[in-house]
Amino acid sequence: MPQQANQPLPAGYVLNGYRIEKPLSSGGFSIVYLARDETGTPFAIKEYLPSTLPLRAEGVEVKIEDESTLAIFRHGLKCFFEEGRALALISHPNVVRVENFFRANETCYMVMQYVRGRTLQFHIQRHRHEFSEAFIRRLFIHLMNGLREVHASKLLHLDIKPANIFVSMDGRPVLLDFGAARITLSEEGTKLKPMYTAGFAAPEHYRFKPEELGPWSDIYSVGATIYTCIAGTPPQAADAREQNDGIIPLRTLARQDYSKELFDLVDACLELDRMKRPQTAFELQKLFMEEPAVEEKKGFLETINKPLSKLFSR
Amino acid sequence: MRFTIFQDSRVGDRETNEDRVGYSYSRDVLLLAIADGMGGHAQGEVAAEIAVAEITRRFQQEARNKLKRPFDFLVSAIQSAHRAIVSHAVERNLLECPRTTCVACIVQNGRVFWAHAGDSRLYVLRRGELIAATHDHSKVQQLIDAGALTPEAAAKHPDRNKIFSCLGGVVPPIIDVGQDLALEVGDTVMLSTDGFWAQIPASIIGTMLRKQGIMELMPGLVGEAHRRARGESDNVSVVAMTWENQEDPNIADTASLDDEEFASSSNTTQQLGPAGPVDDVTDEDIERAIEEIQNAIRKVPR
Description:
The complex is a heterodimer.
Chain A: E1 14-15, E2 18-26, E3 30-36, E4 42-48, H1 67-88, E5 98-104, E6 107-113, E7 117-119, H2 120-126, H3 133-152, E8 165-168, E9 173-175, H4 203-207, H5 215-231, H6 238-243, H7 250-253, H8 260-269, H9 281-289, H10 298-305, H11 309-312
Antiparallel strand pairs in A: 1-2, 2-3, 3-4, 4-6, 5-6, 7-8, 8-9
Helix pairs in contact in A: 3-9, 5-8
Chain B: E1 3-10, E2 19-25, E3 30-36, H1 44-62, H2 70-91, E4 102-108, E5 111-117, E6 121-126, E7 129-133, H3 139-145, H4 151-154, E8 176-182, E9 188-192, H5 194-197, H6 202-209, H7 214-228, E10 236-243, E11 263-266, H8 283-299
Antiparallel strand pairs in B: 1-10, 2-3, 2-11, 3-4, 4-5, 5-8, 6-7, 6-9, 9-10
Helix pairs in contact in B: 1-2
């Protein structure tokens, strides 16, 4: 992820009625802030601010000097609108909700519900090797509800990864960051490269062939995400795998007992041939719901008995 | 090559013509294409326009000499038309991507090759008989194939317009390729949209083609298709080609064309340059996009 070179909005700054508290994260295309409205309700506000463009050295206004930067800035803005549109059309507990969208400071802002919790990435880093099979299945059954809704709205997420899955305090997964949605469907070669994350993006995503992308592309990323939960690191990047598939079999990396069915399921999601993967989120969800054949192993039972709360303790 | 071409597209009883037809030929290769923009979706005519314009553009780029792999060309051209439609929707920030059916065929070396997505059709008629046809990507065709519906009942089926492959959809089009068929003198290759084929059975066209050529017969049949719909006619479009005696001096030979010269005709309006340049995003575009998003936020229950 490129470093954000631009100045974030200062704490205390009031933006269209929302008081900025602090930046929460900053990515290639934006900075996300924690902010509160006049009633004190917290929101996550995403500011469109491509990190590769020099836009704000000081103050709050975006200042663009030359024409070509402006053209790139505005092209990326369309992608930001795509994300806003995508999210505005979806209302689902497992998909982040958009509350408002407006223009200010010569750029645009998307106000989202603020979910208390941490990203799945945080949990993986903090609690490596502690994800039980039951926890993984439960988390992804819920996440598939959200993904089904996304696909039913004729959208693809295209950037599913642990950093984009939020786990709320009550253990509910919420799909974040639709920044990549649709970007790849436009064919312009500008400075704003299509977004994909090595290890999580499907092989057809690298090939940049929009006609090959489908729900199965998101399914690949879900497989890579589960792989990361179990192995602690993402699988080999799909473009490298296509050259010479050296993916380390998940079962050799697992530090606790998982069922053969779960390994098979992850393998199926990570098939390089998109037609061999589960084709829909619903299909995958049904696989998550199938109880694995119980192997009478003490260790396994101990694992599922471990209180979930331990996973969320800080 | 010596051939005769007839082409027509009529609005029928609709407000707009969402069908696009076109042909283009060089000395050695001929392209015919037809697209039926889908009325249930926003701007069907835009999708049809882009489809025919993009396939024609690709043809003129690649068919200066004979095509090495006509089927590969057809599939790839239809796919790039699909991508062009999706890009157009993204460029214009359309909430819904416009969609269209598409059939295209190539004639070269005295052979015909075709590919299609959706329920616009290609027929090959020989001595009054239908010897080859596309298989519709439609729900009713699936029911007919399964033996659950007769072709007669299909014509009145409430879902007769539902298709499962198109350009501009969320999933890429399913593209079927046809046979590679050697043409005989007098063979007619005909592409039509459902506004035509739903009204005029292939058997009638075959029978009448025994007595008349396409230039005499087709104008009347297009009018007949419109009339038979009794005031509810869909857009009616046909492009048809009869393969002539290659020695007949009375029929123009494409050999008279210069190198790299193309003769083309279509009812595309050419307002959209195929694969046009990036349009600038104006302040108005930004305001409009924000308003749309705010409307969507208000509309969807939270």
